[in-house]
Amino acid sequence: MTATDPRHPAPGSRAPVTPGSSTPRRAPLGGRQGPEGSVLLGTISRMVTVTVDGREVRVPEGATILEALKREGTPAQADTPTLCWAPNMKPINACRVCMVEVEGSRVLVPSCARKIEDGMEVRTDTEKVRHSRRMVLELLASSVDMSQAGADVQRWMEEYGVDAARYGEPAPPSDDRDRRHAGHHEPVDGTVAANVAQPVKVDNDLYVRDYSRCILCYKCVKACGTDAQFTFAISAAGRGFDIRIATEFNAELPDSACVYCGNCIGVCPTGALKSVREHELRENGDWHPEQESVTTTICSFCGVGCNLELHVQRGQIVNVTSPADHSVTHGHLCIKGRFGFQHVQNLADR
Amino acid sequence: MDLRLSDAVPSAAEKEAVQRVVAAHGGLTGDVIRDHDHFADSGHAARSRRHLLLPALHAVMDEIGYVSPGALNHVARTLSVPPADVYGVATFYAMYATTEQPPHVVHVCDDVACGPFGGEKIIAELADAGPGGRSTVVRSPCLGLCERAPAVLLQLARQPDASLAPATADGVRAALVHAADVEAGITARDGIRPTTSPADAAFADTTVSAPQTRTPRAERDGHRLQLLTRVGVVDPESLDDYRAHGGYTALRRALELGPGRVVRELTDSHLTGRGGAAFPTGMKWDGVAKAPERPHYLVCNADESEPGTFKDRVLLESDPFGLLEAMTIAGWVAGCERGYLYVRGEYPLATRRLENAIAAARRRGFLGPDVMGEGFAFDIELRRGAGAYVCGEETALLNAIEGYRGEPRNKPPFPSVSGLFGKPTVINNVETLYNVLQVLAIGGPMFAEVGGGRSTGSKLFCVSGAVGTPGVYEVDFGTTLRELLELAGGVRGELRTILLGGAAGGFVMPDQLDVALTLEGTREIGATLGSGVVLVFNTAADLTRTLLRIAAFFRDESCGQCVPCRVGTVRQEESLARIVRGAPRGPELLLLDDLARVMQDASICGLGQTAPAAVQSALALGLLDGPAPDGSRNGKVHA
Fold first, then answer.
1. Interchain contact A92–B (C-beta under 8 A)
2. CB distance B134 to B159 below 8 Å
3. Overall domain count for chain A
4. Closest partner residue to A251 among B6, B412, B564, by Cβ?
5. In whole angstroms, what separates CA B44 from the centre of its chain?
6. Residue A277 has pLDDT above 60, yes or no
7. How do residues B124-168 score in pLDDT, each as one tens digit?
8. Which helix (H) or strand (E) is B634 found in, with range?
């Protein structure tokens, strides 16, 4: 067994934690990745040597810095914060929270997207790196409701010392964000901090869009488009701080190309997209993640054989996900797998 | 592709507008796009037409003044692009509108050069009495007409856009009345589009923009004009006149030398890119020429949008064939059969001149399948920008040409490896390309004799603000800032400070006027040449307002893709506003410094990385200190 075999990571390596799923996942590393993150077995890559914080590590050529950190790094290095990265998606490189220093580069580089080169010197714990990570998290926290982001995100904000309050009182919610014109904004006086607070969009029975929580990681756009679903119902619209995720002319979802696969929900890191059920339970104060249990099963709707993880709270299925490293789904489902569980609940109470 | 479209249907005029784009594309490439009311073409061929998205949206804007739901559907179906994507692109660019608006849009420049020099006055006057006609007034970032401040751009449906500079409120009203008349006439004359605009006449006198050309060529001792040599001399509409003034001799010379020798001449000349990054041009061309992957593409970045910059515009308006010749040389050397010329959407006259020049060059065999009978193919497609400063960033520009939102790409890979449509691509700034003509005319070693280091040859500077004679000035590298100011008629009033390099640059104080205007010289004093902006402020200027405008500019122009720039530019503007209102300095300076560092270190592209530059520079130099004892908000005044 060579060290490049993805099924047998080096001892002590830490696996990344996928937001929204309960079990730790192993990043596919070594070997080439297939078009949608699948691992093509049997490929053997040349190993290259890189220095991470002064320590030499050997990783397969073609791996990203982040993959190297997660695979070969110390627990602290493997805990590099990420927001727009996901193990089952191509690097998006928009959030800029995973930045590291690379010798010879004037600016920081995104570890999620930059490929390892032989002899590369990477530093992950410099003041410059910590500052940028703190500021990215702080700028997001000051403009977006991060309260439903995953536990890792909460912990990073704590660890990096985020102080969102220093930008001042948040501006009141606005209802015109969908109509703002690129290149123009109202004059500011600095008394309140601009943010993306806005009403929740509830226009269908299956999921809600709570864009007050949207950090513009583009994951939903990519999952709807070229990374998974090829439906292209949503796109980033507008520009600058007024950028938003939208359908054409902000049409309601039933009037758009949306097929309700819910893969956008599956990849959303901050709770901006969630099922109507979760939304209602949270609104009513009936959301109890600490009591949640996860049951793995196989979808019974068709013959594809998608693995499902049923998230159950108080005897009720509240969400359905699929493991990001499952060879059939890569974490993505269809409308039936993700939302078609009501018939299970229609059984008599047990 | 299966597109799901809304029920909105396009009007006949909208369909015709899109059809014109399709027909032009077909004429150039032979590609046939089927017109079908219910289905979109599918497959690779259909997807490869997405690059027509910006031209198609422009066609709709030009026809009805906004992108209607029906037109959007039609564009989506014709080009096989999902409607949400079309909407995402249409809402990215400031010159497109997705809600109905009056057909005549008045863009009044209120940026650093125009705002205090009449722009604000025009906005106030037009707001008082209304602009009249079927029009609306919007504020605009720098329109690239700073030497003729204040500037106004008229974006007119069914008529050619026009620039007014220097503009007045009355002038704008008169132009709008004229536009309304023309529109009435058009209906009567059944769709005949006027080809020239009376506003262009104001630009006939090139000495306003390039004052050095006022002196006859023979009498210009000491100031050899090379880049501007044909400005005001050659007829920009005539290929014959261009050839009579030495046109196409550089291409002839390049063909004699062969691609390898041309690269060597460029290497010997030490010519570096004039777009800001100063990358060696010879190395760039050579890298693409040797790239095994085909095809290669050439892109000319004529999306000049840095506030205070107008040098490329003057060249494009007055010597358009020069650019085509230089692009042809670049295409031939780097092995590109197609060049894309991305010209700023706010430059109507330059666009018209270039369109005319490309058509003339095609007719006469200077572009096409067999250039000059020399057996190589090269053609140029012109692409109009649509109001996005960020598209001056090379990878954002590539995305704009490909029909996407102008969001910069992650580098590496660099465009010379994976550029336009993922192929090896040469991207050059307009001024760089004009320099190539000069290198071929006199040879690389001789070119390198002027200046030194990475700064060889001559450089264009955009001098505006409080100077005697604003305009584009060509000087040898190494000329001092003081000499340049003297050339431009000296400072009007008492010099306060100079914004060097544009909004992405920094301020230079009166005691630094002896700085040599080279990449190296300006770096020594912590400044940058940037795009060659020299914006002069005297002691009467309101620098606070200038700084606020710059902060607002970056907020408006951030593409929004990465967090440091998207939110950082907002927080920077808010903090600056608090300082201006007299908030305690300490915490604000700390905040601004924290913001500056994350924007510089972690932004994806140069826009975010330089967004805090001018603000930081002004704070470091004490330009916002005050108010002074005399009540001036300008604070510290150096002697």
1. no
2. no
3. 3
4. B6
5. 32
6. yes
7. 999 887 776 689 999 999 999 999 999 999 999 999 999 999 999
8. none
Query: Are A217 and A325 members of one domain?
Result: yes
A317-342 mean pLDDT: 95
* pLDDT for residue A37: 55
pLDDT band at B178 (very low <50, low <70, confident <90, very high): confident
> Are both A287 and A273 inside the same structural domain?
yes
Nearest residue of chain A to residue B561 (CA atoms): A94
Chain A (102-121) residues lying within 8 Å, Cβ to Cβ, of chain B = 107-108, 110, 113-114
What number is the average pLDDT over the span B56-74?
Answer: 97
CB distance A221 to A235 below 8 Å: yes
Structure confidence by residue, pLDDT tens digits, B501-558: 999 999 999 999 999 999 999 999 999 999 999 999 999 999 999 999 999 999 999 9
Report residue A21's pLDDT band, with 50, 70 and 90 as the boundaries.
very low
Task: Choose among A52, A117, A66: nearest CA to A95.
Answer: A66
Is residue A251 within 8 angstroms of chain B, CB to CB? Answer: yes
Q: What is the pTM of this model?
A: 0.93
d(CA B28, CA B247): 25
Distance (Å, whole) CA B458 – CA B447: 9
Positive or negative: CA dihedral B223, B229, B231, B232: positive
Confidence at A230, pLDDT banded by 50, 70, 90: very high
Residue A203 sits in the same domain as residue A218 = yes
For the record, the structure tokens of B507 come out as: 């301020």
| B216: confidence class by pLDDT, cuts 50, 70, 90 | confident
Residues B62 and B82: their CA atoms lie apart, in Å, by 22
Of A139, A166, A257, the CB nearest to B84: A257
- A232 and B CB contact within 8 Å: yes
Mean of the per-residue pLDDT values of chain A: 89
A248 closest CB neighbour out of B87, B566, B581: B87
- ∠ CA A24-A25-A26, nearest 5°, is 130
Q: What's the DSSP call for residue A319?
A: E
Residues A159 and A104 in one domain: no
Note the residue count of chain B. 639
Let me know whether A305 and A222 are in one domain: yes
Query: Does B82 sit within 8 Å of A257, measured CB to CB?
Result: yes
Does residue A264 sit within a domain?
A: yes
Q: List the CATH number of the domain containing A60.
A: 3.10.20.740
- Regarding whether A159 and A92 lie in a shared domain, the answer is no
Q: Which tokens hold the place of B25?
A: 């594309």
Q: Looking at residue A296, which CATH number applies to its domain?
A: 3.30.70.20
Domain hosting residue A322, numbered range: 196-349
In a domain, A203, yes or no: yes
Per-residue pLDDT at B9 exceeds 50: yes
**CA–CA distance, B367 with B378 (Å, rounded to integer):** 6
Asked whether the CA dihedral B578, B581, B584, B589 is positive or negative, the reply is positive
Q: Taking CB atoms and an 8 Å limit, are B574 and A249 in contact across chains? A: no
Domain boundary among A72, A92, A125: A125
CA of B563 vs chain A CAs: smallest distance (Å): 5
Task: Tell me which of A32-36, B243-247, B507-511, B527-531 is least confident.
Answer: A32-36
Same-domain status, A203 and A257 = yes
Q: How far apart, in Å, are the Cα atoms of A15 and each of A25, A86, A270, A325? A: 6, 12, 21, 12
Percent of chain A whose predicted confidence (pLDDT) is above 90: 84
Examine the domain organization and report whether A331 and A245 are in the same domain: yes
Q: How many CB atoms lie within 10 A of CB B30?
A: 7
> To 10 degrees, what angle do helices B169-188 and B119-129 make?
60
The residue from A100, A125, A150 where one domain ends is A125
Is residue A277 in a domain? yes
In a domain, A20, yes or no: no
Take residue A66 and report the two structure tokens written for it.
Answer: 């982040």
Task: State the average pLDDT for chain B.
Answer: 92
